């Protein structure tokens, strides 16, 4: 992959998405399944205030069980979607086309990398939150800068096949070397997410398609952002080509 400008990366990413709409599918399917699971486990907690001690204990256990299952489902869904979307984006940049099988390969090989990276980010965030009373909020600002430096961490974990700390280290190095490009991407992602949210909101109350179109728009925005950040990751990293999946 020859060095390209940010504009060329944007243009090529849109072309790849137009020719590889299949990248949108994993997020839609996983989101639907996760939503159904959440709907099933939510009633585990009975409505109303318990009248007895036994009822209070049962109510608390039901709440705890429902929250635990919902949390596990949310984490699993996030990892699956990121592996599929980022993995398929990497192959699309390499071959010009991708399939769901490419996403399955990424999930099998890199789910642990994504989980490790996410855990490190979570711990760092929790630490920053705990320091807020002692730093007058500066720890949150510092964590925001840290997240900016982690812009390429997931592509590094999936496309670069790097483990948690290695992915974070590579993302940090790339960001420091190209701060302006990374900030430009971050601003673009915020803008396109806002536009996508506005478009989705226009159809939210429409009959029949009120749930379908917003979901498609949301996943299309996510897929485009994935293609852009993967393209920039490969571009800024200086990698000749993404690794070829081994089936």
Features:
247 residues; globular; single chain; 10 helices; mainly alpha; disordered C terminus
Q: Terminal Cα separation, in Å?
A: 23 Å
Helix content: over 70%
Mean pLDDT: 81
- Helix and strand run: HHHHHHHHHH
How many strands appear in the DSSP assignment?
Answer: 0
Largest sheet descriptor: none
How would you sum up this structure, described in words?
The protein is mainly alpha-helical and 247 residues long. It has one domain (6-237). It is built from ten helices and no strands. The chain has helices at 6-19, 25-41, 53-95, 100-130, 132-135, 138-149, 153-158, 164-177, 179-203, 212-237. Helix 2 packs antiparallel against helix 3 (53-95) and helix 4 packs across helix 8 (164-177). The longest helix has 43 residues, at 53-95. The protein is globular and about 65 Å long. 28% of the residues are buried.
Summarize the structure.
This protein is an all-alpha fold and 247 residues long.
Question: How would you summarize the topology of this molecule?
Answer:
Layout: H1 6-19, H2 25-41, H3 53-95, H4 100-130, H5 132-135, H6 138-149, H7 153-158, H8 164-177, H9 179-203, H10 212-237
Helix pairs in contact: 1-10, 2-3, 3-4, 3-10, 4-6, 4-8, 9-10
């Amino acid at each position: 992959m020859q060095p390209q400008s940010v504009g060329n990366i944007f243009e090529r990413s849109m072309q790849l998405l137009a020719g590889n709409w299949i990248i949108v599918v994993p997020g839609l399917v996983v989101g639907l399944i996760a939503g159904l699971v959440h709907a099933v486990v939510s009633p585990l907690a009975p409505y109303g205030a318990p009248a007895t001690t036994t009822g209070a204990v049962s109510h608390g256990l039901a709440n705890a069980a429902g929250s635990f299952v919902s949390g596990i489902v949310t984490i699993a869904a996030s990892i699956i979607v990121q592996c599929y979307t980022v993995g398929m984006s990497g192959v699309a940049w390499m071959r010009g086309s991708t399939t769901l099988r490419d996403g399955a390969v990424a999930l099998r090989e890199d789910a642990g990398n994504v989980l490790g990276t996410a855990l490190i980010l979570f711990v760092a965030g929790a630490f920053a939150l705990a320091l807020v009373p002692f730093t007058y909020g500066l720890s949150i600002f510092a964590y925001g800068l840290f997240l900016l430096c982690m812009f390429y961490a997931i592509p590094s974990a999936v496309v670069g096949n790097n483990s948690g700390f290695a992915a974070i280290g590579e993302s940090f190095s790339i960001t420091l070397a190209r701060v302006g490009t990374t900030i430009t991407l971050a601003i673009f992602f915020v803008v396109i997410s806002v536009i996508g949210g506005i478009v989705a909101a226009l159809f939210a109350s429409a009959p029949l398609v009120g749930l379908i179109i917003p979901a498609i728009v949301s996943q299309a925005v996510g897929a485009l952002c994935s293609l852009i950040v993967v393209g920039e990751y490969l571009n800024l990293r200086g990698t000749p080509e993404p690794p070829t999946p081994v089936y």
